[in-house]
Specification:
- The complex is a heterodimer of chains A (about 160) and B (about 100).
- With about 160 residues, chain A is mostly helical.
- Chain A folds into 2 domains: about 90 residues; about 35 residues, no CATH class.
- Chain A is built from 4 helices and 2 strands; from the N terminus they run αααββα.
- In chain A, strands 1-2 form a two-stranded antiparallel ribbon.
- The termini of chain A are far apart.
- Chain B has one domain.
- Helices cover about 80% and strands about 0% of the residues of chain B.
- In chain B, helix 1 packs antiparallel against helix 2 and helix 2 runs antiparallel to helix 3.
- The radius of gyration of chain B is 17 Å and the shape is elongated.
- The chains are: A mainly alpha (about 160), B mainly alpha (about 100).
- Chains A and B meet through helix 1, helix 2 and helix 3 of A and helix 1, helix 2 and helix 3 of B.
């Protein structure tokens, strides 16, 4: 295996390298992005692709039917569950009022979400839910920012 | 000692191990630092993805295809844990735990 690198070995190593590069990028994104939502999009998409590449490397390397099926099973499961998990965390984070990044340009849910009743209004922005949601968005939410020594200020 | 010998080894494998360790370390730093609860859940999700990748790499390196079942289990448990954490965060904010 050392002197004559077969095509199988080359493909395995390439897939391993690509997958770990994506995972490292996801980790760097989680480390450096400014707020939860951008961290989450770095973690979800890049990590999904990275794990898929690593498991494809397993399938290529073993060249066995059962192993390939199991590797594809994990890949399919990750592809199905990663968006669901990201959506659920994002929803929870928005509900408890995690502060957005200060450079955020548009927050489409702002004014359409009533933080008292947890209902969403899809109507015009001048409905009565609008003014109410804006006033109590910041004060009734007690995010446990005990160690929030990061670069952004809440609110 | 039959199962744990490194039969598939090259310099690239070492580089891949190093990159995965760096990814694990960075996401663990985010897991510790927070600052909010959803940050930690996201970091935990990423830690689990990296662990799945390390398991896959380990199964290649040691030629043990059985380790793929471990990856299946970790992927399943992680998803349930993430959803449970999100439910917990929402319920706690709503006040009816």
């Amino acid at each position: 295996m050392n002197d004559a690198m077969t095509l199988n070995t080359a493909a395995t190593l390439l897939l391993l390298f690509i997958g770990s590069a994506f995972l490292l990028l996801a980790a760097i994104g989680v480390m450096r992005m400014p707020d939860v939502f951008s961290r989450m999009q770095a973690a979800t998409k890049a990590a999904t692709l990275g794990a898929a590449c690593m498991l494809s490397a397993v399938a290529v390397h073993f060249d066995d039917f059962g192993v390939t099926i199991r590797a594809l099973l994990v890949v399919a499961f990750v592809f199905l569950t990663a968006p669901v998990a990201a959506h659920v965390i994002a929803r929870a984070a928005y509900f408890i009022g995690v502060p957005l990044w200060e450079g955020t340009i548009v927050d489409e849910l702002r004014g359409r979400y009533d933080s008292q009743t947890h209902t969403l209004a899809s109507g015009f922005p001048n409905s009565e839910i609008h003014s109410q949601a804006d006033t109590n968005k910041s004060d009734e939410l007690n995010v446990s920012n005990s160690d929030a020594g990061e670069g952004f200020s809440p609110g | 000692m039959s199962g744990l010998e490194y039969t598939f080894s090259s310099a690239i494998v070492n580089v891949v191990f190093a990159m995965l360790l760096a990814a694990l370390f960075l996401s663990f730093v985010r897991l510790v630092r927070g600052p909010t609860m959803p940050d930690r859940v996201v970091a935990l999700d990423l830690v689990a993805a990296v662990v799945v990748a390390i398991t896959a790499l380990y199964s290649i390196v040691t030629e043990q295809a059985v380790l793929l079942d471990v990856a299946i289990g970790i992927a399943l448990i992680t998803f349930l844990g993430t959803v449970a954490f999100a439910q917990y965060i929402e319920r706690r904010a709503r006040g009816d735990e």
